[in-house]
């Protein structure tokens, strides 16, 4: 809360810090570091390659600042698993690993309208949630 003995600038600064901390999902900094190390890069080179300074990269890894969309896009171009960084889970996108039934479903999805694909995606999501809650 703003107190008359504080300056307006100090108050605004403290509120911005609070907002920034609220934007950072727990673990993002650690996963950023993991991905940087997986690519065998130091903070300077990794940050610069994604469009930020070493100091900003360090702040992201310490979770004292939130990455923006330009930075995340730069990471994607570096080969960083941005989905993993943001969510903590990896998605296997290797289509060569699809089994026969999955290949058939994908083939049929490609023949559908955008609206029908969206409906099927919602249905698959709902069915997967039920399966996890009540495996049979």
Task: Describe, in plain words, how this protein is organized in 3D.
- The structure is a single chain.
- This protein is an all-alpha fold and 136 residues long.
- The protein folds into 2 domains: 8-87, Orthogonal Bundle (434 Repressor (Amino-terminal Domain)); 95-133, no CATH class.
- Helices cover 66% and strands 0% of the residues.
- It contains 8 helices and no strands.
- It has helices spanning 8-23, 28-38, 43-49, 54-61, 69-78, 82-87, 100-111, 114-133.
- Helix 3 (43-49) crosses helix 4.
- The protein is elongated, with a radius of gyration of 21 Å.
- The mean pLDDT is 83.
Distinctive features:
mainly alpha; elongated; 66% helix; 434 Repressor (Amino-terminal Domain); 136 residues
Q: Which oligomerization state do the chains in this entry correspond to?
A: single chain
Helix run count: 8
* Class computed from helices, strands and strand pairing: mainly alpha
Indicate the proportion of strand residues: under 5%
Shape: elongated
Secondary-structure element series = HHHHHHHH
- Rounded to the nearest angstrom, the radius of gyration is 21 Å
What is the count of distinct domains? 2
CATH superfamily of the largest domain: lambda repressor-like DNA-binding domains
Query: Helix amount, in percent?
Result: 55-70%
How does the major sheet shape up?
A: none
Q: Uncertain runs with pLDDT below 50, 5 residues or more?
A: none
The CATH topology label of the largest domain is 434 Repressor (Amino-terminal Domain)
Using the 3D structure, state the CATH architecture of the largest domain.
Answer: Orthogonal Bundle
Q: Can you give the mean pLDDT?
A: 83
Number of strands: 0
CATH class of the largest domain: Mainly Alpha
Distance between the termini: 53 Å
């Amino acid at each position: 809360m703003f107190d008359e003995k504080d300056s307006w600038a100090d108050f605004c600064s403290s509120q911005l810090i609070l907002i920034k901390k609220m934007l950072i999902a727990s673990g993002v900094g650690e996963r950023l570091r993991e991905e940087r190390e997986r690519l065998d890069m130091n903070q300077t080179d990794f940050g610069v390659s994604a469009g930020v300074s070493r100091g900003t990269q360090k702040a992201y890894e310490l979770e004292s600042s939130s990455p923006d969309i330009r930075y995340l896009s730069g990471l994607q171009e570096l080969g960083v698993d941005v989905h993993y960084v943001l969510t903590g889970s990896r998605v296997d996108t290797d289509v060569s690993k699809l089994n026969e039934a999955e290949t058939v479903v994908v083939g049929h999805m490609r023949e559908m309208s955008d609206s029908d694909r969206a409906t099927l995606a919602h249905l698959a999501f709902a069915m997967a949630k039920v399966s996890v809650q009540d495996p049979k």
